[in-house]
Amino acid sequence: MILNEYKNIVNPMPYIFGMFILGTITYKSFYKYQWLAIFIASCFFALIYFLKGIKITLIMMLFFVVAVINNSFYYNYTPGVTEKVTITSVKPYSVSGEINRRKVYLEGKLDKVKIGERILVRGEFISELEIARGNIGTFNIVENKKLKDNFTSKLYKIREKIFYSIKEKLGWRRASLVSSIAFGYTEFLDEDDKENMKSLGLLHAVSVSGLHMALVYGVLRKIFGRKYTPFIALLYVLFTGAALSTIRAYIMLLCTSLATPLRRNYNPTAGLSLAGVIILIMKPYGAFEIGFILSFLATLGIILFNKKLNKKLYKLPKFLREGLSLTLSAQILSFPALVLTFKEFSFNFIIGNIILAPVISVIVLIGNLLVITWWMPFIFNYLCFITYYVTIVMDKIIDLLEKFMLPIFYFNENTSFMYLILLMSGYFYKKGYKKIVYMPFIAIIYIMISIYSPIPKLKYYREGAYLLSYKGDRILITLKKDADFKRLEKICIANKIYNSPKNIKIGENIILRKNGDDFILQNLNKEYLLKRWREKNKSEYDIIDFSKGDFNEIIILKDEVVPLD
Question: Are 246 and 326 part of one and the same domain?
Fold first, then answer.
């Protein structure tokens, strides 16, 4: 039987996880570029057939088909006129929710809704898929009615009440910081605190990550034992908002705790892959979320490189060696994703993670004790007193570290591409494929051609800029008065900068002209409105929609424009 062949694979879970990722990416590509999606999937399975044979290829294809069907089941759903909605995001400019566990935008009659609330809505659904964000469309609400809280919404309300109780003792800013670090309540987190955490490479600290889950799970296991800890830890996952990184950490810890009673050796790569498969079954769009990507890449980096780095740093003191090896190994694979997302990188993460990690761990533990003792005023107040001074210590350390901050380096997507090529080349060279040494040189030629751009291209940066590039000209058009011009110039490798000009011409036939707050792209006799915001517009022009996040770059041909996914 085919499944018997599967036993020849020592660790099948990474293969299955890979098929779910491929199936999700193929489904997204097929939605717009059918033949390209078919070509990529066919090439991949042809390679598997060449390396592993027909039986393994058929098994892989089976899981690939399951992943595609799972995506189809998620996106091919049309809500009715009346639906139950759970509010998942409330922002000044948009409200989002879930209908039958599918993400939707909400418009129309929304009376002071809060995150976690459940409402019964009546209205009209407009299907408009945004596969990269998991949204199936927009529900225009004509009438809504608040429903009785379920278990999850009650947890959200308790979390909010705990935050306000902490605020009464510590003040708004410290309460926001503690609530964010301890149990993922980031709604009121100060922008300066976000920026400090970002500059020190500690953004994972202000959202519940594997660090938090491991600490909480470890403490719970000592108090309640192996039997009850998984159930109590699951409550913590729900209480914190069930972020993908938290779910990933919970599943891996659960696999670890079950390995001993089931008399199985725990394989961390298999545990990570199993977590990925479960998450993608529940939320197929997770493969495109930066939280999911960074969490998995950082964890895989730790699994693959932590022990090796620890051994190489044997001359350092134990606490420094372990902290440094863990921090560096987490960055090895997550670096390209970080650069693609934030367009910058600094080695401050080494200082931040080694020096501040112990303080953050203390805040995680005390913050969650505040949750447990919320109904016990005397203990709660005493813990708030301790927390106040812990946050003061944290502020003092951050102020001190700012004096020794290393410079920030700005990169664009070419850096990530080149890094990945070097990583892959090194891996295959060690496997004996010596001719792979030519790949970096080919990549450099490709990057040089891309920067020169023999075909006109326009790229949208969400920081607030367009980049027009053609035959060596790289023209940066800033869209915001407060945009960081120097940062954008370095990221884009621009040689010309304009602050919202009226008209710009590139090549013989391409003109970019201002039209109110937007821009019109004119190519020969055809005109396109460049759309940056999620809003309804009635326009006489064809629309190039950057607001969905499905693409951020277009190639401008004579007769048409082609979006690059």
Answer: yes
Q: Where are the beta strands (DSSP E) in 212-337?
A: none
Q: Are 491 and 410 in contact (CB under 8 A)?
A: yes
> Same domain for 123 and 173?
no
Q: How many CB atoms neighbour CB 97 within 10 A?
A: 26
Same domain for 124 and 27: no
CB under 8 Å, gap of 24 or more: what pairs does 372-379 form? 374/158, 374/161, 374/162, 374/165
Closest CA to 458 of 537, 536, 533, 529: 529
Q: What is the DSSP annotation of 494-518?
A: -SEEEES-SEEEETTTEEEEEETTE
d(CA 85, CA 263): 43
- The boundaries of the domain holding residue 138 are 82-148
3-state secondary structure of 40: helix
Nearest one of 294, 283, 229, 287 to 256, comparing CA atoms: 229
Distance CA 39, CA 21 (A): 16
Maximum Cα interatomic distance, the chain, rounded to a whole number of Å: 76
Q: How far is CA 285 from CA 72, 269, 536, in A?
A: 12, 22, 24
- Domain-ending residue, one of 423, 448, 473: 448
Contact 96, 103 (CB under 8 A): yes
Q: Is the dihedral of CA 221, 223, 227, 231 positive or negative?
A: negative
Final residue before a domain boundary, out of 115, 148, 181: 148
Report the distance separating Cα 284 and Cα 70, nearest Å: 8
Same domain, 40 and 129: no
Mean pLDDT in each 10-residue stretch from start to end of the chain (565 residues)? 50 89 91 82 87 87 94 93 90 86 90 86 90 91 89 87 92 90 81 78 68 83 86 89 86 81 75 92 91 89 91 86 88 89 84 84 90 90 93 90 83 90 90 87 92 91 88 87 81 85 81 83 83 70 78 83 79
Instruction: Report how far apart the first and last C-alpha atoms of the chain are (Å, whole number).
Output: 39
pLDDT at 527: 85
Mode of pairing for the β-strands spanning 457-461 and 465-470: antiparallel
- CATH code, domain carrying 119: 2.40.50.500
Distance CA 87, CA 157 (A): 13
Read off the DSSP letter of residue 404: T
Phi first, then psi: give them for residue 65, nearest 5 degrees.
-65, -40
Give the tokens for residue 152: 């999850």
Mapped onto helix, strand or coil, the DSSP state of residue 539 is coil
The answer to whether the beta carbons of residues 501 and 479 sit under 8 Å apart is no
Question: Same structural domain for residues 131 and 214?
Answer: no
Give me the pLDDT at residue 74, please: 95
Same domain, 499 and 371: no
Give the count of domains, the chain. 5
Q: Considering just the CA atoms, what is the radius of gyration of the chain in Å?
A: 25
| Same domain? 437 vs 482 | no
Single pTM value for the model: 0.87
Q: Are residues 190 and 311 in the same domain?
A: yes
Which tokens sit at 447?
């990057």
C-alpha 471/C-alpha 453 separation (Å) is 5
